[in-house]
Amino acid sequence: MSDYQLALQQLVDSALPTGAFAHSFGFETYVDAGVVFDEGSFGVWLAAFVGQQLTYSDGLAIRFLYEGAEVGELDELLSASLLPRQVREASLKMGGRLLEIGTEVFPSPELALYRDLVTTGRAAGHQPLAFAVVARSLGVPFPEALAAYLFATVTSLTQNAVRAIPLGQNAGQRLLRGGADGVAAAVERIPHLAPDDFGALSPGLEISQMRHERQRARMFMS
């Protein structure tokens, strides 16, 4: 077993207290509108989210950091590209928690540098970058780190959908199996994307995330 494998499992475990349980990243808007209402309709939304937002935003940010881009520049790029306020705030809330946890559990000079940028106001502290800094410092190869991050996000969103729609536990497991195929496709696609592809998201996803802010009743923060 490689030295990093158990640490990576802890880093992506759903029990890691980053607050992912409080965020729907816009699918609750579709639930409220009656567009997402069962296993199949949520699966369609999840495939779109993985193939768009996770691929062209979080996934590319992780790749660029692994390729040596400055974390401060990537942080600024993410802040500018995450147009829906709640999604931007979700990334910062979970990123802040990951920076705090990582400093205690997975300390490294790279993580200390990023946290210093955040605490001094020179960076915002986004979740995918915090994850990538920790994973790279642990020696996790890029493909494994990327797949683990994407699938952890799929897992948390599916768990939230099981509660919100609601869905049965077996339906959740079927969705995870289908989501794994989407993650594998994204891991194959992301290394071949160009820098200009960053932020090329579906307007429908972003509009739903913006509308969530004014939704009359909701379970989630985003």
Summed up:
With 222 residues, this protein is mostly helical.
What distinguishing features does this structure have?
single chain; 222 residues; mainly alpha; Urease accessory protein UreF; 10 helices; globular
What would the CATH topology of one domain be?
Urease accessory protein UreF
- CATH homologous superfamily descriptor of one domain: Urease accessory protein UreF
Structural class: mainly alpha
The share of residues in helices is 55-70%
On the 0 to 100 scale, the average pLDDT is 94
The shape is globular
Please give the number of β-strands. 0
Explained architecture:
The chain has 222 residues and is mainly α. The protein has a domain at 21-87 and 137-212: Urease accessory protein UreF (Orthogonal Bundle). Helix content is 68%, strand content 0%. α3 packs parallel to α9 (169-189), α5 crosses α6 (109-119) and α6 (109-119) runs antiparallel to α7. The radius of gyration is 16 Å and the shape is globular.
